[in-house]
Amino acid sequence: MGLKTMTKLHNGVEIPSVGLGVYKVEEGEQVYESVKSALEIGYRHIDTASFYQNEEGVGRAVKDSGIPREEIFITTKVWNNEQGFTETLEAFNRSLTKLGTDYIDLYLIHWPVPNKYKDTWRALEKVYRDGQARAIGVSNFLTHHLDDLLRDAEIKPMINQIEHHPKLAQIETRKFCRDQGIIVEAWSPIGKGTYLDEPLLCELAETYGKTAAQIILRWHYQNGTVIIPKSTRASRQRENAAIFDFELSGTDMERIDGLDQDYRLGAHPDHFNYG
């Protein structure tokens, strides 16, 4: 158990259930040190994106760690202005170069750009078939996007990475993904820390001898959701990883479910400014 706990994707590839997100972590020393400390703690799953502009620092930290490349699961994503079939293949190769690797463990469409994401998906299917990506998926796709994509897709997405935390339960999207065998991965899994003083979470933290953040992350884990909490501090990275030595009761899981308010911190995929 622990950071070596894996979730199996529908193609048989296993992804570490807990990873490190690096959104808004600055390229250079900050992202390098963040990834370095996470790998030292035991993380083996790093989630970045071309949009984050820190792939080079991630790649350097992975290389300098001395850990065999095949033991580290790297996710990156194609940004909105890079989408389309040819453009995505070019973006994928740029990411490979910046990360200093010859394959990506998981490559995602970052957002469902209207009239583009189907061509983008064909490019992802190509890099998957060519063995350059071990798994492919999408991010910020709602049920209707997935339904539309699946009409023409030859390969079903293995993951849908969405904003998801107790106040944004995403019940419909999660059910659709579960029915299709698509694993849900949560970005902003603790809601950017905006409601850690929620009375229920504080009560449960005291009951279980954990922090409110750990209660939320454990709730995700017990729901079968892959999580990528972001932290640049080693102490917080350790805290976010310490969720495997307790179990929430079914009643407490349901009480956390009751916090849902359809409360988004990020953009709604149907109202995103796609430019």
TrEMBL record:
Family recorded in the similarity comment: Belongs to the aldo/keto reductase family.
The name this protein goes by in its record: Aldo/keto reductase
Positions with a binding annotation for substrate: H110
Site residues, Lowers pKa of active site Tyr: K77
Positions of the catalytic residues: Y52
Sorted UniProt keywords: NADP, Oxidoreductase
Domain called NADP-dependent oxidoreductase: residue spans: 25-260
PANTHER family (alphabetical): 2,5-DIKETO-D-GLUCONIC ACID REDUCTASE, NADP-DEPENDENT OXIDOREDUCTASE DOMAIN-CONTAINING PROTEIN
GO MF annotation terms: oxidoreductase activity, acting on the CH-OH group of donors, NAD or NADP as acceptor
Organism of provenance: Sediminibacillus halophilus
InterPro entries: AKR, Aldo/ket_reductase_CS, NAD(P)_OxRdtase_dom_sf, NADP_OxRdtase_dom
Superkingdom as given in the UniProt entry: Bacteria
